[in-house]
């Protein structure tokens, strides 16, 4: 986050200009990091000079109401240029009549290089792998004061002590909440894995910026830039996911390698079961006659093949056995996909690749 000097009551020493003869109210900022500074005295006099520097505004506040605003320049305070304040406290015309009011100096410079990040991981469900994951997000953002009245009444009045920690805590909570909602909806609607998030940073940045803009505007602040620079997963969670995905890959490999034989055998027994209950059926006669599969169909001959011949199924009609080369290619493609998604390291890829090639 940005420096804690952004928004605070500063030590007024050497920044308050107050002469016994000519009152001068001014704030010379020591840096461009602050947002708001309150003039420490409230005993103001008509005829005093109010000096507002470039990119500043000075706001008079009375009884919690944001009243007259002064832009850059030197202003001699009078009833003529304090119409809202004059209406409330009925300032007399002329002279150096004293009155009480708060004066807030507001910095209008845009601050573009502020950091943001999630303090704790955001829990999500990966829509592709249907697996719970925790992600962290980091980036930069920029903001400027657009409406000093809203800022003072809505934000400064709420926080009271003007600590930058409270400002950061509030807005970071808002950003993280909106980002969590956007991440969940975006990846589900697009059916994209969380592991592809860093390829979608521009879209996520724009969506999040649009979502939080109205909330900042409510406090008189304008978002000038917002970027999601990185989305990552804690190392512990990544290792757990890799382990689970590795087991799933092994199961998929076993299933794909046996699927041809398994299907043929299953269909054969389904046909035999039906034939056994049919009077006069060839297979039914064999089974009813007490010929066991091993004897009646021929010793040493595969059951699926013999059963197919008995039922009049020629080899060309039966499901072809899987091609070992096709199975090897499928396994290599799955392994490469894991490497491209960052789920396994190059070393793990090389080791697994060697195992697959050795099994040919």
Could you outline the blueprint of secondary structure elements for this entry?
Layout: E1 24-26, E2 36-38, E3 43-45, E4 49-52, E5 56-62, E6 65-70, E7 73-76, H1 83-89, E8 98-100, E9 102-107, E10 111-117, E11 122-126, E12 131-145, H2 148-159, H3 164-190, H4 201-218, E13 221-232, H5 235-276, H6 282-288, H7 293-296, H8 303-310, H9 324-340, H10 346-358
Parallel strand pairs: 1-4
Antiparallel strand pairs: 2-9, 3-8, 4-7, 5-6, 5-9, 10-12, 11-12, 12-13
Helix pairs in contact: 3-4, 5-8, 5-9, 9-10
Structure description:
This protein starts with 23 loop residues before the first strand and ends with a helix. 43% of the residues lie in helices and 22% in strands. α3 crosses α4, α5 packs parallel to α8 and α5 runs antiparallel to α9. The strands form four sheets. A four-stranded antiparallel β-sheet has the order 2-9-5-6, sandwiched between helices. Strands 10, 11, 12 and 13 form a four-stranded antiparallel β-sheet that branches. A three-stranded mixed β-sheet has the order 1-4-7, with no helix packed on it. It is rod-shaped and about 100 Å long. It has three domains: 84 residues, no CATH class; 123 residues, Band 7 domain (Tetrahydropterin Synthase, Chain A); 121 residues, no CATH class. β5 and β6 form a beta hairpin. By secondary structure, the chain is an alpha+beta fold.
């Amino acid at each position: 986050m940005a420096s804690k000097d952004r928004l605070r009551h500063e030590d007024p020493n050497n920044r308050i200009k107050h002469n016994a003869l000519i009152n001068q109210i001014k704030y010379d900022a020591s840096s461009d990091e602050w947002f708001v500074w309150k003039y420490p005295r409230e005993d103001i006099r008509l005829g005093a000079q109010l000096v507002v520097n470039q990119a500043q505004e000075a706001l008079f506040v009375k009884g919690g109401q944001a009243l007259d605003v002064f832009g850059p320049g030197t202003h001699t305070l009078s009833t003529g240029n304090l119409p809202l304040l004059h209406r409330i406290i009925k300032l007399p015309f002329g002279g150096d009549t004293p009155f009480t009011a708060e004066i807030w100096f507001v910095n209008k410079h845009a601050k573009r290089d502020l950091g943001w990040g999630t303090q704790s991981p955001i829990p999500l469900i990966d829509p592709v792998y249907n697996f719970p994951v925790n992600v962290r997000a980091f980036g930069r953002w920029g903001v400027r004061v657009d409406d000093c009245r809203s800022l003072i009444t809505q934000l400064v009045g709420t926080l009271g002590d003007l600590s930058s920690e409270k400002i950061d805590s509030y807005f970071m909570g808002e950003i993280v909440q909106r980002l969590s909602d956007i991440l969940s909806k975006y990846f589900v609607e697009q059916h994209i894995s969380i592991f592809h998030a860093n390829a979608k940073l521009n879209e996520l940045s724009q969506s999040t910026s649009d979502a939080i803009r109205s909330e900042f505007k409510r406090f008189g602040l304008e978002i000038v830039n917002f970027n999601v620079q990185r989305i990552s997963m804690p190392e512990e969670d990544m290792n757990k996911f890799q382990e689970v995905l590795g087991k799933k890959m092994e199961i998929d490999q076993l299933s794909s390698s046996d699927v041809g034989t398994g299907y043929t055998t299953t269909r054969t027994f389904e046909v035999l079961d039906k034939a056994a209950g049919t009077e006069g059926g060839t297979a039914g006669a064999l089974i009813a006659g007490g010929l066991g599969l091993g004897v009646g169909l021929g010793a040493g001959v595969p059951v699926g093949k013999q059963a197919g011949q008995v039922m009049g199924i020629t080899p060309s009609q039966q499901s072809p056995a899987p091609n070992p080369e096709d199975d090897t290619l499928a396994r290599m493609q799955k392994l490469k996909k894991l490497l491209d998604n960052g789920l396994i390291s190059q070393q793990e890829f090389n080791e697994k690749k060697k195992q697959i090639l050795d099994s040919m």
